[in-house]
Amino acid sequence: MQRLKPVDVVIAGGGWVGLAMAKELAGRTSLSVVVLERGPARRLKDYAAGMDEVDYTLRYRLMQNLAEETTTHRHSTGQSAMPIRQYGSFNPGTGVGGSGEHWGGLAYRYLPDQFRLATVLREKHGRANLPENLAVQDWGVTYDELEPYYWRAEQMMGIGGKAGNLRGQIVEGGNPFEGPRSHEFPNPPHPQTYLVSLFAKAAKELGYHPFPTPAATLSQTYTNPDGITRSGCAYCGYCLRYGCMIGAKAQPTNTLLPLLVKRKNFTLRTGCSVRRVSHRDGKASGVTYVNEAGAEVEQPARVVILASWTLNNNRLLMLSRIGEPYDPSTGKGTLGCNLTHQVSAATPIFLDRPLNGFMGAGGLGVTLADFDGDFGLDPAFGILRGGHIRIASGGEAPIASFGRIPPGETDGSWGSAWKKAAIKWWDRSASITSEAEHLAYRQNYIDLDPTYTDNFGDPLARLTLDWTDHERRQAEMTIKVQGMVAKAMGAKAGNPARRVGAHYSTVEYQSSHVSGGAIAGASPETSVLNPWMQHWRMPNLWVIGASAFPQNSSGNPTMTIMAMAYRAADALVDRYLKHPGALA
Amino acid sequence: MRRREFLELPAKSLGGLLLYTLAREPIRLQAQDGTVRVPLRFFTAAEARMVTAACERIFPADDSGPGSTEAGVVIYIDRQLAGPYGRDKYRYTKGPWVESIPEHGNQSKATPREIYRDGIRLLEDFAALPAAQQDAKLRAIEKTPFFQLLRRHTLEGMFSDPLHGGNAGMIGWQLIGYPGPRMSYREEIGKNPGEAWRRKPVSLADSLGHPVTGWEEEKD
Question: Which of A82, A350, A546, B77 is least buried, going by the fewest C-beta atoms within 10 A?
């Protein structure tokens, strides 16, 4: 194995978190920082040539190569897990920028009470009335502590939206249920499309509070505090699963990388697959990886940061034998616990007028939080937490959106009659979607698969994950609201897509918001990381990403991930570097 | 090395559109009989004829507009199967292979190429049958992985960017009103609510001013 010259900081993963940590460390200190990214480098012009539905939506060209590494899944400990052989319920990205390149740019904050969820649920319902196997936890950090970091991330990306709670004052037009914001959004919301305005009007008539979905696609030309100027969104529609060809969608490659490449103390190595964190006597000493040429390399470092996707962070810890693996039969161990996804549902809607659905941006839409968190829960459903309901003009590409037909209009799914109906409805159909919180349960966890391996022969991560009645009831509640809004829009509603079925399915896309496993918390007995994302048992190892979420909230996780990363960066730079050791 | 196989198509059925689509392939246009000979990468000529006929039943030319034959769907499928997708280059293909529950998706070892080769055998003399019998035959295999793949690929070939070999002359996009990948709708977004915005489609190559290579061209 080739042993490189030691560096100060090595970061595994070149996505949002990896490049944000690199930018904070390499920009604010003279430390040498190396980022290892297993995928390729990409350029803006690659993205213009990538406005192609076949290669990018249907063949997942920006995603991790499943032939090299995937994940296995089973519903319960009694079953054998099967590899996820082709993309389905979630899509982790690869290459510089990671999933931050192909994301849709939906930039919600989480609700304040999410960060104290175990306490909140206990206080409201009493411990005895909660499901026995519920494993939700407080995060060890509060919304108020995270707020400045949310704001830093929002400024960096230039999020557009409308505040609904400005320093405690409820503001018309924003989300009245959100936590207090210290500032109005850096940019105004996107213009509304016909589809979005119909939804907003209908929701208002029903007494709800639709607000512009916070979007990381710029609504106008914007210069961020780092001096990075990006142009406003062109609404080309090639957004989710595509890189932005003009840089209007905030991506690590157009916000952070341009600053990093100017720093002499920053090195980015692509084509490098990190396989292990090396460690001795409770201290990380660097990482080992396989480089682009296939050679094994050791990179010694004083500080190691894991900044890869949720499941990869977990797997690296497990393969490196850092921490005690979680055992669901005894509840002992913490590594791999509290695996969550999200509770999604969709109702197809059919309208009289054409929508020009090909125009849009991932975050162009409106959201209802009237049924989010603890708000507006219909007792008939007996649920502990709700979720977002929203509509978007996200940019419809012609293949995936072809074939939506109102129920009863034609039999079958091919032939002349079907073709005519599908053509008629192609630009008159859309979906109302929702994402609800996914609570953590003792039985849902991550460990290493005993059978299936990656291209290096290392065991794959294994998900043991299934729905409970609670998630099915959450989905039914959101579907009920979707149907009411559809009706008020004057739309015909189709059969709802029940993505939360009898059992968790790896087949249909749900969201790429898989969370947990290396969770943060207030105590080393119940979490892997302290509230600054520092490993409880290995102070020079930091593990950052949605892997730290003790349970999943509604909506998209990127801003919360980034807020936690910035908070970790401050703790690292301002405190840890001065006195290396466990932060108290 | 397999013998070079060609798909022969009457040029007038395509209105010359395929020439545009296939600009990067050597095509021999035989002016006398108006036949376009498209070199095949995966299918034999006989297989291509069967697949063409089956796609045409899935997405037929009718009074609503052109169908899969005119769009050159079979050429799209031929290229996809010949490329990395066709041999599952980006799918997890390590064993053990075990049948599982539907929630675990496709756990079969068969590649798209193998699914087609096996499926085409079920079609036998398909191209020669009258339409009603063709439909009956397809209905009988509707639940098979082959038919489901064929149906999906037919739609892909109808509505993909022409860079992939289908959607010749962008007739699929014209059929539904999709204007193609365009660099900006800044002037249009949010304007004229409820009114259809329709333009003659542009391809990605048109928008960029240079040709674009699809993933299927990736060499092993």
Answer: A350
